[in-house]
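Fold it.
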Amino acid sequence: MLPVPRKRFGQHFLTDRHYVGRIVDAIAPREGDSMVEIGPGTGILTDGLVRIVRPLHVVEIDRDLARDLRQRFDDSQVVVHEGDALEFDFSSLRAPLRVVGNLPYNVSTPILFHVAAHAAHIRDCTFMLQKEVVERMVALPASPEYGRLSVMLQYRFEMALAFRVPPGAFTPPPKVDSAAVRMRPLGEDRLRARDEAHFERLVAAAFAQRRKTLRNAAHAFAGLSAFEKAGIDPGRRGETLSVSEFVRLSDAAA
């Protein structure tokens, strides 16, 4: 019997074992992997992973579900970290870390940004989340889905939509389709902004009002001389700039 989903945690429990199998296949766990699962819920994905990965770390905010997981698995199989994934220190686990999970829809974007902050410690990520969010994550410049999330994740990760999942695979069914996404850190030789804090503020400003030109939207973080130095027309909108162009503009301004 499934527990009653709690709205405040955005819980939609994956119950279709066909899609559980597809997720496990996409993850391709190996013995000896250092792995953490975010939001294991009822443990249906945990069951598939712990057959190969031991110990498997899991982060669960729901104390009742965390208790149930401790009762089902001993510490040699699953190490339960009861708490909020947004506060969990992923760098505390052995690197290179593999991060997986069915992310709660109501906080999926903050979790993605939190995980991205630990990219240097991570080998790869495989997440299930709202399809619309995945489409934003993998979007190309000048597309309607391209935005701050696209730029900030693609700055650190290579990403690909793995497969789509219908609402009926979950209990209760969400009102939207879901999708699995694969994320791999770009590596030490990736393009880096000289001042990453400035880069983040510039990107946020560029997409705060999408219809504005960069001249107007990002003037506080890039003056006209920076646009000239970077070779970027200030009359363009943020949604047309590639990640490398944002880095170039940030470096010219910073």
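Residues 196-253 form a domain with the Helicase, Ruva Protein; domain 3 fold (CATH 1.10.8.100).
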